[in-house]
Amino acid sequence: LRFSRHREIRGRAAYPRYDNYDAIEVPYVDAIPSDYDGVMGVPITFLDRYCPEQFEILGASESEGSGFSNGLWRAESGVAQPMVDARRVYKRIFIRRRG
Questions:
Q1: How confident is the model at residue 63 (pLDDT cuts 50, 70, 90)?
Q2: What pLDDT shows up at residue 71?
Q3: How many domains does the chain have?
Q4: What DSSP assignment string belongs to 5-68?
Q5: Is 50 a domain residue?
Q6: 8 falls within a domain
Q7: Hey, how many other C-beta atoms are within 10 angstroms of the C-beta on 46?
Q8: Is residue 12 in some structural domain?
Q9: pLDDT band at residue 4, thresholds of 50, 70 and 90?
Q10: Domain containing 44: what range?
Q11: Is the pLDDT of residue 77 over 90?
């Protein structure tokens, strides 16, 4: 994060976690960390660059119900859209690095 070209995340110690999903928020496709093996929420534009050998798609953020999140959504939050620090984030795809 220290060397990111995106001013919004440069200098942060870590990626923020979602309030209502069990994943970290990665706000830009070119900011996907190379050293993180957990679940990441990435913008839907990730699909343009998706490499099945490198990442597995686990699900997507909800718009209604819990059909696509593959168990990552915390229903007790009462809010289906992903949230970081009580602010809604646009639709996200949840991925994990393979291997």
A1: low
A2: 67
A3: 1
A4: S-TTTTT-SSPPBPSSBSSEE--SGGG--TT--S-EEEEGGGGGT--TTTEEEEEE--SSSSSS
A5: yes
A6: no
A7: 19
A8: no
A9: low
A10: 24-97
A11: no
